[in-house]
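Methods — Computational structure assignment.
A single polypeptide chain was analysed. Its primary sequence is given first, followed by the predicted tertiary structure written as structure tokens.
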Amino acid sequence: MTAAMDELLGILDLERLEHNLYRGRSPQVEWQRVFGGQTIAQALVAAQRTVEPDRFVHSLH
């Protein structure tokens, strides 16, 4: 895998703090911003972890 892919997978691998509570991280870059796509992706990962494994996302609005 490339370094960029490893970084992306690391960002999407959320830390479980407690039941239904997760913490994400941001890439180590100079600017101090979080981009919407990152926030949505992390929210989707967290949501997916709160349901049974046989339940899948059908859409995101």
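Note: The chain has one domain: 3-48.
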